Amino acid sequence: MLWIASLCLLLAASVLGAPVNKERQKVLLISFDGFRWDYDRDVDTPNLDRMAKEGVKALYVTPPYLTITSPTHFTLLTGRYIENHGVIHNMWFDTTTTEKRPYYQTQFVNEWWDNGTLPIWITAQRQGLKAGSLHFPGTASSYQGEVAMVREVEPPFYNYKNETAWKENTDKVMHWFRDEDLDFISMYFGEPDGTGHRYGPDSPERRRMVEQVDRTLGYIRQSAERHGLVDSLNIIVTADHGMSTVYRNGLVEEITLRKIPGFSFSDLSFHLVDFGPSGMLLPKPGKLEKVYNALKGAHPHLYVFKKEEMPERLHFTKNDRILPIILWADPGYVINGYFPVQFNKGEHGFDNEDMDMKPFFRAVGPAFHKNLEVGPFETVNIYPLMCHILGIRPEVNDGHLNATKHMLVTSATTQAADESTFDMTFTGLAAVAGFLVVVFIVMTSHIILKNKRKIKRSGSSEHLPEEKTKQTTF
Question: Which PANTHER family match (predicted)?
Answer without folding.
Answer: ECTONUCLEOTIDE PYROPHOSPHATASE/PHOSPHODIESTERASE (PTHR10151), ECTONUCLEOTIDE PYROPHOSPHATASE_PHOSPHODIESTERASE FAMILY MEMBER 7 (PTHR10151:SF63)
